[in-house]
Specification:
The protein has about 260 residues and is an all-alpha fold. The chain has eleven helices and no strands. Belongs to the 4-toluene sulfonate uptake permease (TSUP) (TC 2.A.102) family.
Length: about 260
């Protein structure tokens, strides 16, 4: 697949992608789910399918920075419970990409994100405000992990849009801010890295896409630093509202032609 290089973009297009890369860094260390805006920018500037391959290494760079920042706060029982279901979702997403066009992909992911946001808002209103993460050893905890894991793997493979789905899972499970960020940091570093061979096999990553990534990845670092500065100034309730709002915005953007 013939990808774009930095020299194929005009100044405004490169500036938009640079801002999207900065927003990736911010989302990884502050408001997870906000990178759905980055996804929309990349899809608007670049061919939609190609944009997913170009964005993936930028997301991985943000994941590395997030792990370095929040590595002590990961909840590993939750991660181990999620990974098998996520693997199934990634395989399903790869098969979906073989035949689905951009329109079907956008509509499917947009609907899923809005449904997840609605379910999470309802659950947060009926749950106790201060509780530990849901026990993953219970039947309900296992069922929730499997369902969100498959959806997360599917959406992250087809559109790099797994962040909002997993954000909804972690919020619904009662994770506090730092546990949320630490768990999602390790989750996406592992999942996004595992997607590289699938994306390369589909022709979504090549030498040209990596050249553009090299020019854009520098903007991830200041975004991550800004997010780390901001997260200490955001209280838990505002944090949850920002995550849900970012998910809704991302879902709506995917549904708009």
């Amino acid at each position: 697949m013939n990808m774009m290089t930095p020299w194929d973009l005009n100044g405004w297009e490169f500036a938009a992608l640079a801002f999207a890369a900065l927003l990736v860094g911010f989302s990884k260390t502050a408001v997870s789910g906000a990178n759905t805006v980055s996804l929309a920018i990349f899809a608007a500037v670049l061919p939609a399918r190609a944009s997913t391959g170009i964005l993936l290494p930028i997301l991985i760079a943000g994941d590395v920075l997030a792990v370095l920042t929040y590595r002590r706060h990961a909840h590993w029982p939750t991660l181990w419970r999620l990974f098998p279901a996520v693997a199934a979702g990634v395989v399903a997403g790869t098969l979906f990409l073989v035949w689905a066009d951009d329109g079907i992909v956008r509509i499917s992911i947009g609907v899923i994100l809005l449904l997840m946001a609605g379910v999470t808002v309802w659950r947060r209103r009926t749950a106790a405000a201060d509780r530990e993460p849901d026990g993953v050893s219970t039947r309900a905890g296992r069922a929730k992990a499997r369902s969100y894991g498959v959806l997360g793997g599917f959406t992250t493979m087809v559109a790099n849009a797994g962040g909002p789905v997993m954000s909804m899972y972690l919020l619904s499970a009662g994770f506090r801010k730092l546990g949320f960020l630490g768990t999602s940091a390790f989750f996406f570093l592992i999942v996004n890295t595992s997607k590289l061979p699938f994306s390369a096999g589909l022709g979504l990553i090549d030498a040209d896409s990596l050249l553009l990534d090299a020019a854009l990845v520098l903007f991830v670092v200041p975004g991550a630093l800004l997010g780390r500065w901001a997260v200490d100034r955001i209280n838990q309730r505002l944090f949850e509202r920002l995550v849900i709002a970012a998910t809704v915005v991302g879902g709506v953007q995917l549904l708009v032609p």
